[in-house]
Structures are given as C-alpha cells and as structure tokens.
Batch of 4 targets.
Target 1
Amino acid sequence: MKLLSRSRRAVARLPIRPRRMNFRFQGFEQNRYWFDNDPVLTHFMNVLSVTFPDGERFFVDAVRAFRDQVDDPERQKDISGFIGQEAMHSLEHKAFNDLVAGHGEGYDALVGEALGVAQRLLAGARKHLSAERQLAATAGLEHITAILADTILRRADMVEKMDPSVRPLWVWHAIEETEHKAVAFDLYQDVSGDYWQRQRAFFYGTAYLTVFSAYFTWRFLKEDGIHRRPLTLAKGLWKMFGYSFGHKGVVTQAIPAWFQYLRPGFHPWQDDNSHLLEQWRDTLPEPAVTAAA
C-alpha cells in the first residue's frame, strides 16, 4: 500500500463531520431567479444542483469500494466523514431540486429529464469503468467541486447576491467540500496512483460536466422564453461572462487551479484554504444533527 507521507497530509487533519442541516428554504418559492435576480446564473447553479444527489452517491460508492485497504484509523475517520457528508449533500440538494421543480410544470419535467440523463451517465460509468477508474473519476470531479467551493468561500460579494433562502445551502456545501477535498484523491493514490489514468478521468469528467451544464442551462432558459427576449438573454450572458472571466472571475481564478491537477506531484492541500472555513461556519444556522466522523 502506498500510504502518503505525513508531511503531504499535514493540513488535511481537519475534522470531517457530517452535519444534517434540514434547510427550510423559506421564501424560495417567491424568488425564481435566486442568484442576483438573473436567470442565466440561477439556472446554471440549479443544473449543478441536479447533478449532486446521484453524483455524490457515485462518489460514496467509489470510495467505499476501497476503504478496506486503509489501515490508518485516522484515515478511516476521514473516509467515514466523507461518506457521511456526501450523503447529507445528496439529501439537502434533493430537497432543493424538488423546490426548483415546483416552480412550474415545465421545470418539473426538465428537472426529471436532467436527473434521468445524469443517472444514465453514472450507470454507464458503473457498468463500463473498473472500480479503480471510478475512484479516479471521483478524485477528479471532487477537485472540480473543490474549485467551486473555494470560489464561493473567497467571493463574499458573490455569495451576498444569492437569495437568503438559498445562500446557506451553498455556503455549507462549500465548507464541507473543502473539509474533505483530499479524501478521494488520497485513497486513489493509495490504491493506484496511476497518473495517466487520473488525468484521463479528469478530462472526461470535465467534458461531461461542461456539456451537461451548458445544455440544461439553455433548456431552462428556453423554458422561460428567455431565447425570445434577446436583451434579457444578452444581459444575463454578459453578467455571467463578468462573473466568469472578469476581475476575480470564477473561471479566471479556476483555470490555474484546474491546471494544478495536471501536475504529477499535485495534492489538494497544497492549496491550504482552511482559514476560510471558520468565518463562514459562523454564518450558518445550527445543524439539526452533527455527528463525529
């Protein structure tokens, strides 16, 4: 077993505790465009949320398949914490997705269609990829979610533009994705460490997520008739362009982090953003349940 050295994992000894939040999303039904009152930004985040329940169950299964190869009791606690946190994310985002679907009959059908596509893609991965390649895909997609989480935690100005009914969900998710961002990667390094397999899985995961998100964001915009309102569409796309590529833009900052994954010596905690966690935890409501990992 290729256990990682203690020095590479020095900052990763964060407690990974599952927290069941039972978010109520009070007032969400009154604000369809909850992100800066903008349809493009809102639907992009809605579509990401649709991928989470089934995607995170896939991550849990990929990690669980190899946990018996880890002897370190601290690492076992990390894995248990990862599994518990991902299970809570699935539950909370399912509740959120149900509310999005409740905004109209067309939304209900679209959420169902997007869920169906995500489930078929994941079923194909389970069928055609070995357990090791599924873990490699999990490590890569966890890096992408860690990049999104880091962006949320560093961009208070952007978080403030989320409706208060929704804001705690995304902040809580970002905190926990940061806490466990190295778990799947470390496990993959233990059971394989094959660099090229890791990169292939990362490229495929990036491509599938990009195409899926772009396609269903457009479908939601079309459902709202935004494609027949060119000024509204142009304004939303320009705003999303600014969020993505402007000064401190999401993509502008994410590109270097994305490329970091390509380095042979990469490790998620080489970017130590743990200092951001405590200040954001203070903004959250008390969890309904907090379990030790």
Target 2
Amino acid sequence: MNQTIHNLLTEQLASWETARNNYAALSGVQVKELNVNGTLYKVQFNPARIVSSGAKVDAKSIKERKCFLCPANLPAVQKGIPFEGHYNILVNPFPIFPRHLTVPETAHVAQRIAPRFGDMLDLARQLTDYTIFYNGPKCGASAPDHAHFQAGNKGFMPIEQDWCRQVAGKVADYGQATLWWLNDAPRTTLVIESADRKTAIKLFDTVYHSLDIQPGEDEPMMNVLVMYEDNKWIVFVFPRAKHRPACYTAEGDANLLSSPASVDLGGVFITPVEKDFIKITAEDIAQILGEVCLSPADFQKVRKRIQEQL
C-alpha cells in the first residue's frame, strides 16, 4: 500500500497545480523549536494552512457551503485510492507534512470516531510509513460534517519519538495491551500500546466512555494519533476541554490564530500568519494547551474512571 500511495502522490503533484505549488512551498516553510516545560514543540509558519486554521465551522457556515470532501465536489484533477470499500485515500492539497493524505468516507456522514476506530487501526496497519490522525468535530476538524482521517509521514511529530521518555505511569494493563499516561503537562496524553486489534479497540472504547460529553455534543472532545510499528499499534489520545483558545478571537496584540488539532498536540504548532510565528513563545503554547486540554484534576479523574471500568 505504501508504494501505491507514493505513486498517487507522484501522479497528483505532476497533474495538479495547486497541490504541486503548495508542496513545493513546504521546502520554504519556516520552523522554530520551543521548549514547553521540558517537552519539545516545533512551530511551523505555513500560510497555505489558513484554509484549515481559519475555517468557519459553525453550523450556519457549514450548511451554506458545499462539502469539499464529498466525491461530487472534489476537483476534477483529484484522484483517490479506495480503502475498505467506503473510504477514499486522497492527497491533501494544503499540506503540513511532506506527504499528507486525507481519507474521507465516500458517504456524507458526520465526523465521529466511535464507529470507525477499528478502521483507523486498519489504515495504520496498511500505511506503515504514516501516522494516522483524527480531529474531533470541535477539535480542529475543518470538515466536522464529513467523516475523515488524515495521515502524514512518520517521524514528523516530536511525540512519535518522545513519548517513551515521558511516561508518567501505567493506567492499566488489559490483555495484550497497556494504557500509559504521559508527564507532558499542560498537554494531557494517554497512550495505548497493543499488539492485538480487538484489545486496542476495547481499551479505546473504555477511554472514550470515561470522558465527559459536553452539552449539545455527540462525542467527547478528543484528538487521536495512530501508528503501527514493531508489530503493534501505538495510539495517542488527547482528551480536550475546549475547541479554540481565547487568543484565537482576541483583539489586537493578544490575537494569535491558533486552532489546535492533532498535529499541534503531536508537537508541531501550525501558524498560518507570519506575525504569529514570529511572536509565539513557549509560554503562549503552554497557555493554549492549558486552555484546550483537560485540567490536571480532570485528567486524574479520567484515569481513575478508566481503572474502575476495566
């Protein structure tokens, strides 16, 4: 499958000018590194991502626009690879990663993780060169009305290498799987390590049902990353408390266009506006994460609930 994806990328960059220009622009993207309470974060200045970071995701705006993930509305030049009969693997024309994919459902159904976490594991098992990610409808998804995953080449997000050194403790053992929690505050991170698909799904389901669902919402707020290596799945779950930090809508100098999603929580903060890239500090990132992630007390409660359910 990795080779098939490589061929798709090569073909799309040859035939699709928008994608070609945006991937070429990645080589000039500026990056800086910040140390946030001992955790490394990269900050990327990527103007093409304003499409996603600035996306209007209120119900009215979504209702008034055509869904850009529905097959009927894709650009004529965009080609895909079918996956499991009801997904389409596409090249993302507004990349963060050197190889960036979007994997939407072929049907227009809402962005929900519970019924398709197993599909996410299967995708990671097939796309072993990639980390698969899920943004909840109020957690960075710019298409909360259409179910989709994304994928980016492995080794891009600091958490992929760092997490083992940041383990704070074990939440639970369950069959062939272990659930860890990380010492990476103010981010709140749970990690499932499992060699068995069914066990990974059971553990994720337990985590899911240990999180609060906010009034008017259909699922707990979260971002999820999945990768498959050394014959096992590594699943990062970031429980959330809030969609966007206060700085997103702040006026004047306090304004910083940050709408954190999986990649930001994985350690690469995306800034589509140059002034934000220049001014953002480790303290800003800590403040943003402290707002959008669970409080230490709530995170502790979640871990206790998980232990009680298993």
Target 3
Amino acid sequence: MAAPTPGPAVLEIVVPAYNEAERLPAGLSRLCAELAALPLAAGVLVVDNASTDATAAIVRGWDGPVPVRLLSCERRGKGAAVRAGMLATRAPYVGFCDADMATELSALRRVLALLSAGRPVVVGSRRHPESVVDGYGQPLRRLGAVTFNRLVRDLADGVADTQCGFKFFAGPLARAAAADLRTTGFAFDVELLAHCVRRGASITDIPVVWHDRPGSTFSVRRHSVECLRDLLRIRTGPAARSRPGRVRLPVPVARAEGAPLPTVSGAGRG
C-alpha cells in the first residue's frame, strides 16, 4: 500500500453517495489508488446522503492509501450532498466524482495541470470530440441528455456536457458557488456552474474515457419534470445574473507544494 503524501490536502474530492454499498468499495479503491500516485497530498470526502444500506459503515471502516472522511447529509438529493461536501472542504483545489467512478481517473493529472495553470473550473465532457464513451445508457437517456444540455449551454459558459459527474474547481470558488447552491436534485450541476460563471470564472472542458455502469438512480421518466422545473428556477434566479468581482484563486499547486505537477498539451476548451 502506498504511503500518503504528508501535509494538508491540496486536493479534496467529494463523493456523493446514496445507497452505494455495492459500488462504493470498488470506486473508492480506484480513486484512492489514483490519488496516492499523485505528487501531492489528497483526501476524499464521502457524503452519505441519507442511505439506508451499509454505505456509512463502509466509509467508517475504510483503510486505504489516502485519508477518507465521512460526512452525513440528511437532506436528500445529489445536489444537497455535493453542496454539503464542498462546504466541508478546505483544500486549494476541490472536485467531485460519482461513486461508480464512471469517468476513468487517469484524467486527474490533466485536471491538476490545468488547475495549477490557473484554470478555475475544469469539467469532464462526454461530448468532447476526443472523449471515448462506452455504452452511454439507453437511447431515451441519451436523447434527454442532449436536449437538456442544449437548453443550458448559455448558463454554463457553452459547455456541451454539464452533467458529467467529474468536475473540479479552485477551492475558494467552489465553496463560494456551493454556498449559493439551492438545487438539490440532478440539475444542480447547471446551477453550480452558473454560479461560477457569474463570478467571472471560465470553464475548461476536457475529454474523458467514460464507462456506463449499472446502478444509476437517475431516471428520465421519473426525474425529467423535476429537472425542467429546476432549470426554470435557475434561469429566473440569481445564478443566471452576472455579478462583478472575482473570487481570489489560490497560488498554483506546484509553487505551493514545491513539487512539479504533470504538464499537458492541448488543454481543451477555454
């Protein structure tokens, strides 16, 4: 088992989890192994979103190469869980991943290189021309995702895929945007990104390798009306209105930690 990098976490990753006892062990194993190989201190914060299975017990008993904390969020909804997790972070850079780790975590090195270069928001996009997407759900879900993202592009700096569960931020910006987040359901990503944009932040989307994994709690039939209702509220609320001023971003990780980060070429959009 790799020894954790000493010092306070430079990167914290929030993992929202609702009844994820079956998928969480494999997901945490992959995430912790990837983080342990990075040249910086990292940590994981699992937010138990009122689960009725053994999700919390799995996290409490977790023994891995990087610290994993547990936070309880009794307010149901992925947006509520992500908000609680973001507000509980302290690191210069933060992000969130889905418990199934559908996005291959090798993309983390590119994310960190972009964040350390001053990009305030870096998101995975399954619609990026260089992405590799394996089995993106059922046709109805694909059609719904395309339609939804066309409706919200103007709110999220033109990003073509607002719903990929792989998003990373400068920590102060993430915490400020999360504090204003009011959407508790699956449309929360749009509001979160919109709060970043209205603070003057640009969004960089990057290609990902993404695998559809069984067990998602999202249903087009059950959640479409809720998502559209949330979208209407976001469009008429403060998230859609620009505001002067920017959140002060942290110094690059490489400078703060005294260790170089991976560099990349072709950093993506933005």
Target 4
Amino acid sequence: MSQTVDQDAAPGTEQNDGPWLSTLIRSLTSQQLSPLGELLPAFPPEELQRNTTGLSSEAALRQAHAFYDNVLDAARRAGLVLDRSTRALDFGFGWGRISRVFMERISLANIHGLDVDPAFVEITRDLTRSDKFELCAPFPPTKYEDSSFDIIYLYSVFSHLSEEACQSWMREFARILRPGGVVAFTTRHDSFFDFCEWAKGQGASSSPYVQALGQLFPDLSQVREAYRAGRFIHASSQGVGGGGPRDESFYGETWIPEQYARTGFDDQFEFVSGYFDGTKYDQACFALKRK
C-alpha cells in the first residue's frame, strides 16, 4: 500500500462507527494517521490474518476495536488514564492487530510487544517500523525492569495457555506493572464448549483442528460442571497445539471462569471487570488492577 495519507471519511462511516474505527477501516486501502499524528501500520496478507485470528480486513479490525472498547472501560473503572505517554505491553502481539487500535491514545513509541514466534516479530517490526516488538520464551522472566508498564493487554493468549503458564505470566506481569496498572486478557467463554460439542459430531472430512477439538474432552458435561464451579480448564493435544514454538506442553484450549479471574490472582491483583458480548467477539474478557 503506497497511497497518500487520506483523512477524509467515506460518507456515513463516522456516524455509524465513530471516527477512530472509521479511520482504522480506511487504513485498509489508504495510508491514515492516528489522532496523535502517527502513520498507522500496513497490513500483512489476508491469508496470514485469517490463519492467526480467523478473520481478516474489516472484520478483524472490528473485533480488535470491540476488545479495545472493553479495555478502555476497564481502565476508566481502575482510574487509569490512557494517553500518549502511557507505557503499554502487547503480550502475544501476532501481527500487531491489537496495538494499532491502541494508537488512538498511546504513541507507538510507547507500545512494546512480546511474542514466542520469531516470524511474528519480523512481520510486526516491518509493519510498524518499530523495534519494540520482541521475542520471548514460553515462560518468564522478561528483560523489563520492575514497574515498566501502565497497562498490559493480551488478546487470545490466555485462551490457550496452561494454568502453570498463566500463573507464571501473571506473576511476571505483577512485577513489570506499576501499582495501579491494569492487565486485560481474553479467554475461552463457556459457549466455546458448545463448539466442542458440535465438533464431536463432525466426520473425517472436517479439518484436523475440528476433529482434535471434538476429541479433547471425553465427557464435556463433567468439564462444564468444573468450569461453572470456578475451576481453570485447560486441555491440549497435537491437533489443537499451536505448532512451531506453541507446543502442547503449555498451549492448547483454555477456559478461565470469572470466579477464578477474581480469586486466582488476588495475591497481587484486584478484579476490575468482566465482559462478554458474542456479537462482537467470541471470548470472555477480564481486567485486573495491580495492587
């Protein structure tokens, strides 16, 4: 994409979506500036977008923006003001989809990222022209100093990590977040058990992932009961592991119920809020504040 910067909205888009979402959507076909005057990143090929998020182009942006709206609400509830100088960490950034949405308020110069996949590091550094998106190991520690960040956000990361990995990373987030800082993450929602049930009934002609998902739990009713009792649910197999650096020893499918989000990390965090609207994105979102 090598067009001139275009700040004029298409007729009607701002009224329907708001100026920032409209700008994000226009950035698919023309270069756009954030409200802070920064050039928005380019996009990777649509196939790569679909392979990582299940969506591409406008649908992928709308989903990311819906998550951003929830995080903004949580930050407000926690008394955290997001502005140009806010120090942010995008954990599991993929191709940088979520961070571009946060550029409405936070300067790209203050957005850092960590991901286990070296291919994503190369792609996102190229798209954003920023060297602050870096490689990390599957488990902490990180190189960052204590209280380095004001906010940490994770989209579709704790929907896959084991309990050991989640707990390890939350302890590290507590170290690198300043007191009063916010961590917001998504995880599988109760309704994803319905998809697992559906997957059980699919034949050999379905995708390997669907077949593996259908075989993940011998007794889904028992697993649902444990989830609704507040237990952390994680399961994996070769078919649902992420491949590459995301192996099934720590990566699979994960459900964190609200009760666990409220109490499972309460030695260092206090629960702020929870969100779910399946019409906007299909994961549950929880936000916690560093004590």
